[in-house]
Every structure is written in structure tokens, then in C-alpha cells.
Specification:
The structure is a single chain. The chain is of the alpha/beta class. It has a single domain (about 1-210), classed as P-loop containing nucleotide triphosphate hydrolases (Rossmann fold). It is built from five helices and seven strands. The protein has helices at about 35-45, 95-110, 140-155, 170-185, 200-210; strands spanning about 1-10, 25-30, 60-70, 75-85, 125-135, 155-160, 190. It has a seven-stranded mixed beta sheet with strand order 1-3-4-2-5-6-7, sandwiched between helices. The longest helix has 20 residues, at about 95-110. The two termini are about 15 Å apart. The structure holds guanosine-5'-triphosphate and magnesium ion. Guanosine-5'-triphosphate binds near residues 35 and 57.
């Protein structure tokens, strides 16, 4: 996937709408503070998405319009990256948690809604999901539950492990194996800080986008 242009579009509260020309949507899912907004910035090479040290930085679904060539030889397409609020707030209590669930459930309902009449070209539809998991913590219950839920929904997905720069080389190799064993699938290790692994994620996102056409 080659990114030509990226822009912040809008924040979508629960009950909001995806823009009618959103095109294929790739959603970022993961625990609060795992590095979803940072990965968007690394993918689009711009500081558009607000990242923060405090969990719960992203409270609405933030949408980024991206013009991209998904794979070599493909036509330019308008796509949308959706930065979802994180699950598993450390603080915030049950009110924040249920607010999160409403926003995320509502987002997936809208992104996967199938209208009665054939949608016009460029209409929003879910191309797939990037599940982000902290590279340092393999097999957390909340991540396994999110992974199982995504698989159950039949969404195409990529699993990315984040913050690998915080691990030594040997710990990276060890945790990589632990993540793959816990989830039963391949994962892509990245660091949004150093940029390590980001090109492989761009390629995988390009495949999600072309598979969904
Ligand atoms: N060292 C390191 N820090 C990272 C990396 N990715 C994110 N961070 C840091 O982790 C913190 C959280 O990053 P965000 O991108 O805001 O995380 P988020 O998943 O969007 O968080 P919420 O919006 O709260 O759900 C920030 O302080 C980032 O700078 C990484 O690859 N390496
Ligand atoms: Mg965020």
C-alpha cells in the first residue's frame, strides 16, 4: 500500500454516520494505550492522530481519509482508517466502559450494514480490522476475547504487536512466538517509534483492501 494523501475527516460519536464516500474502511482495535493512534501516524507518516500517554485518549471513532494505491499496479482508491477507542480502560470505571462498547458496537454495525439497494461506488464498507496487541504481554484475556469476537464476525484481520522497541532482541523473539502460540496465527511485530515493521503492515493493509474489492 502506497499512501498518497491522508487527512483527518471527522469524529464519529455513537449514532453518527460514516461519510458516504468513505470507501473501504480499516478499523484499529486494541486495548486502551496499546498504540492505535501511533500506528495510524506511522502508517500515514503524519502526526494526524492524537496519541497520548494516558489510556483513553481516543474517546470517539476518529476517521482518516487516505488516498492510496493498495498494491503495485492497482488504481488509486479512497479509503478510511478508523481509530477506535481502546477497550479495557484502566481507569474510567463502568460508565466509560459501557460508553466504549456502545461506540464500538455502533461503529461495526454501521460499517458492515448491507443496504437493500446496491451501494454506489465509494460507499463505506468494512475492509478489515487491525488488532493491536502490546508486544510485551502475550495472551491477555481481553485480547484473546477481542480476537475471538473478530473471527466470529468473519472480518478480515491483521494482528500487529506494538512497542517492540521496549524489548531486547531476544525478548522480541520469545514474545513473538508466545503471541503466535496464544492467538494461533501469524502476527506482525512493529514499533511505531522506530518504524520497524511498518512496511510489512502497509503491505498487509493493501491486501485487506484489495481482497475486499
Ligand atoms: N516506545 C513506544 N511507545 C509507543 C509505541 N506506540 C505507542 N507508544 C506510546 O504509547 C502511548 C499510547 O499510544 P497511543 O497511540 O495514544 O495509544 P492508543 O491505543 O491510541 O490509546 P487510546 O486512544 O487511549 O486507546 C503513547 O505514549 C505513545 O507514545 C511504540 O511503538 N513504542
Ligand atoms: Mg488513541
Amino acid at each position: 500500500m502506497k499512501i498518497l494523501e491522508a487527512d483527518f475527516v471527522s469524529s464519529m460519536p455513537a449514532g453518527g454516520h460514516l461519510p458516504p464516500d468513505a470507501g473501504p474502511v480499516v478499523a484499529m482495535v486494541g486495548r486502551s494505550n496499546v498504540g492505535k493512534s501511533s500506528l495510524i501516524n506511522a502508517l500515514i507518516r503524519r502526526g494526524l492522530a492524537r496519541a497520548g500517554a494516558k489510556p483513553g485518549t481516543t474517546r470517539l471513532v476518529n476517521l482518516y481519509a487516505v488516498r492510496t494505491v493498495p498494491a503495485p499496479g492497482r488504481r488509486v482508491m479512497r479509503t478510511t482508517l478508523a481509530d477506535l477507542p481502546g477497550y479495557g480502560f484502566a481507569q474510567g470505571g463502568s460508565k466509560a466502559r459501557s460508553e466504549f462498547e456502545v461506540i464500538v458496537r455502533d461503529f461495526f454495525e454501521r460499517a458492515t450494514a448491507r443496504p437493500a439497494t446496491p451501494p454506489p461506488p465509494g460507499a463505506p464498507r468494512l475492509a478489515g480490522v487491525i488488532l493491536l496487541v502490546d508486544g510485551r504481554h502475550a495472551g491477555l484475556d481481553s485480547d484473546l476475547a477481542a480476537h475471538a469476537w473478530l473471527a466470529e464476525q468473519g472480518y478480515g484481520s491483521i494482528v500487529v504487536t506494538t512497542k517492540n522497541d521496549r524489548l531486547s532482541r531476544s525478548a522480541q523473539a520469545r514474545t513473538h512466538r508466545a503471541h503466535e502460540a496464544a492467538l494461533g496465527r501469524a502476527v506482525l511485530p512493529v514499533s511505531s517509534k522506530t518504524g520497524a515493521g511498518i512496511p510489512a503492515v502497509r503491505t498487509a493493509v493493501g491486501s485487506l483492501l484489495t481482497a475486499a474489492r
